[in-house]
Amino acid sequence: MNSNEFFNNNFFKNDPSELFKDIGKQVYNQFSSSAFPTNIYDTDEAYIVEAELPGVSKEDISLKFEQNILLIKANKKLKNESQKIQLNERSTGELERHFKFDDINKEAITANHAEGVLYVTLP
Fold first, then answer.
1. Domains of the chain
2. What is the DSSP string of 70-107?
3. 73: Cβ–Cβ under 8 A, 6 or more apart, which residues?
4. What pTM does this model have?
5. Which of 18, 80, 95, 110 could be bridged to 74 by S-S, CB 3.0 to 4.6 A?
6. With the C-alpha atoms ordered 74, 98, 53, 82, is the resulting torsion angle positive or negative?
7. For 74-117, what is each residue's pLDDT tens digit?
């Protein structure tokens, strides 16, 4: 293969930015203050999602499952808003993650929240 054939290959005809399109989202989700640590387990019967949401009440969590995507949103509120903050390293505000699954029985999805962890079972 000569150099002209190499550069005329279909690989180079596509927009190079397409190769990196989702990398930014992945990095953002991993290190963003609007993300939260999550483990996903694949059992024979279901996927189990464990999302760490310390300091977030059950009422401030919403789940949505559409087009095979689980969307978890949480609103982490600042406690003691009347006090003057000297140092604020804890994340507050809207937190959001989404995960894609295949072959899920949407009607059988269950969730519970205990000790700062959200558990979602997707059969």
1. 34-122 (2.60.40.790)
2. EEEEEEEPPS-TTSPPS---S--EEEEEEEE-SS--GG
3. 61, 62, 63, 64, 94, 95, 96
4. 0.69
5. 95
6. negative
7. 998 877 767 788 887 777 789 999 999 999 999 999 999 999 99
